[in-house]
Amino acid sequence: MFVTAILFVVLGGVWGSGAGGVLGGGAGLDNPHGESSQANSLLAGTLGRHVADVVVMYESPTMSVDDPGFKQRVEAVVAKLPKDSYEWVETYYSTGSTDFVSEDRHKTYLAMQLPGAVEEEQVVVYNQILPLFDAPDLTERFGGLTAVGQQFNAISNRDLARAELLSFPLLIILLLVVFRSLIAASLPLAIAILVAVGSLVVLRIVGGLVDLSTAAINVVVILGLGLATDYALLIVNRFREELAAGREVEDAVVRATATAGRTVAVSGITVAVTLGGLIVFPSRFLTSLAYAGVSVVLFAVIAALTVLPALLSVAGRRIDSLRIPLLGRRRPEAEGTGWYRTAHRVMRRPVTVVLGITLALGALGVPLLGAVWTRPAEWALPADTDSVVVTRQLAEEFPYDPTKVISTVVRMPGPADTPEAKAQLDDFAQRLDRIEGVDRAEVTGTEGDLARITLGYSLSPYGQEIRDVVVKLRAEPPPPGATALFANRPAAIVDMLTMIGNGLPWMLLITSVVTFVVLFLAFGSVTLPIKTVLMNLLSLSAAFGAMVLIFQDGFLAGPLGFTAPGFIDANMPVMIAAIAFGLAMDYEVFMLARIREHYLVSRDPVESVAVGVQHTARIVTAAALLLGVVVGAFVITNVTVLKMIGVGVVVALVVDATIVRGLLVPASMKLLGHWAWWSPRPLARWWERHGMPEPEQSAAPPAPPVHVPDTAVRN
């Protein structure tokens, strides 16, 4: 197994490095079944969408746009563009419109629409013609939705690579602090490297079968790295405990795999199914997270349950060799101290603790009620990025922004170019023009029974105001017998939010049902799954509230290095919920398993909780810290939405691993008492035959009998 793993790392690293070649271009955020996507499909022909996908801003500090040299350079760029690389190209020199000229007359832009209606195809064309826009002695900057997406990917890839370089040394340091031995610390790192390479291999395989979004994959790879470290930490720690208890190496490996490995399996299945729940959202970004996330997480579980036991067998009792002199030898926490005492203090006032923490975490989630949702765009990029500069210049120095267009495609009951149809279309355009927020609306083309009405606006395309405009536009009745569909950014955002709003309840239902089933199979209780779901929702509430407070309202914007945009990417809560919910299960199962181990022997619900917390709190905190370092490295990136992922997951981890596991779990378990392990008799009998019980416990002196309701102790 050891040799096989080495060969896999070498060969897989070479082959997996080509994963980027099978990933689709573009972010894939739009709802493919939404009205805007349908409209884009209708407008993809000769009628056209009449919106600029790319805006190239040309600037000269010495020449004005009226100088022949300026004109010659811009026209030379247009002449170089292949005819099949655009639907239309417009400049100041081709139109004569002053809309293309800045106030100081030292800037002008080229606006173009890329062919087709599929984002991935447009990205391919854009990347092919990108070098052709170079104009000697002129400074060019690229804006427009297609350019934003490519700049977003480029900056994200660069920053995430830097984050990985930073997080890996920190992981090494933290593992050395936790284990205080080079051998023990190296094992989780070995699994992390194996999973990092395996993730690339998996992504290349999956990317050849389904269309994956590059933007989603960046997140999945780092998640796999963090989970691998997390899972390996739990198993290595249990292996050392078993050796310290006097077991032989082989028995310790078997025992660690059967106990901590069981926790890893349960957690991995839950994380995988939770990420798989993203399949209910049809956008390519979220389905990519589903396909790739499930594959990478399962690979991390398989590596932890197969390769790691082989490494433990090789390491044997040498696992504590090569100790770090400055750190000394870790002394095991004495019975009845530390977390044990904390758990007992908490259980003395369980009602107060449960109510206090519930109210506090609920209050932290209140800002979520005022969230303004949108999609990521140039607002998420650094201020000096081309698309950000171009957007600002168009808003401040030009009378018209060619990207701020809503295209309306109207399907008439007959030909759209008859006098009667034209009159009806003009009337419809005038009614649309009267809606507040629309700057101008006019019929700009017809083809067969289709007509295109182009609407301009000056509002931010990402705020609530323009979405209200879209709702009013769609409510306006089209000509008799006709249908009208609205496309472009504001309409696409409305459709994306509708998609997320419709899919989120189903995702939460799937996640909750899976959590219930997995925990029931693991512990034979119907009470614990309900408690776990409620606690996880509290942690998520706090994380989402913190996201709104920090990123929408700008709290801590300075220290975190970003400008508050005033809204939140609507994909982030979905992604963070899928990740954090699954990770919380990791710690929950690990802690409950140790509590139940003691409970099966003693039948003392209070003492079992205290002992279980004492044996798991330190390692749960360490696991959360290690995973927090990996995911928290997102915070140092220059992309605001990546910072959102880092902050959201880290807050959820910190809340869950400290407040929830250290305080809320003991208090709630005290309130439940023996009923924490209860299930109805039919389910209890079914679980005895088909469940996933813990492995047989070591011999221990019998505890004195405890009188409890029969149904509460059947499990």
UniProtKB/TrEMBL annotation:
Q: Where is this region: Disordered?
A: 694-715
Q: Is-annotated flag, keyword Transmembrane?
A: yes
Q: Which domain of life is it from?
A: Bacteria
Under the heading SUPFAM superfamilies, the entry gives:
Multidrug efflux transporter AcrB transmembrane domain
The UniProt entry's GO CC annotations, sorted and at most eight, read: plasma membrane
Q: Where is the SSD domain?
A: 183-314
Work out whether the entry's keyword set contains Lyase. no
Q: Sorted alphabetically, which keywords does the UniProt record give?
A: Cell membrane, Membrane, Transmembrane, Transmembrane helix
Q: Name where it mostly resides.
A: membrane
Instruction: Report membrane topology.
Output: Multi-pass membrane protein
Provide the protein's localization: Cell membrane
Q: Which InterPro entries match?
A: MMPL_dom, Mycobact_MmpL, SSD
Segments passing through the bilayer: 165-183, 190-210, 216-236, 264-283, 289-314, 351-373, 506-526, 533-552, 572-595, 616-636, 642-664
Query: Which family does the UniProt entry place this protein in?
Result: Belongs to the resistance-nodulation-cell division (RND) (TC 2.A.6) family. MmpL subfamily.
Protein's recorded name: Integral membrane protein
> Source species, please?
Nonomuraea gerenzanensis
- Species lineage: Bacteria, Bacillati, Actinomycetota, Actinomycetes, Streptosporangiales
